[in-house]
Amino acid sequence: MMMSMSSLQIANMMFLELLIEFPIQHFI
Length: 28
Prior knowledge:
The chain is mostly helical. The chain has one helix and no strands. The longest helix is centred in the middle third of the chain and has 26 residues. The chain starts with a helix and ends with a helix.
């Protein structure tokens, strides 16, 4: 349970980073 939760949090953070960094790279 804990392992799956942590993996979900890591995937969520990676997705958010891509969502935030992708547009920034395009704008700059």
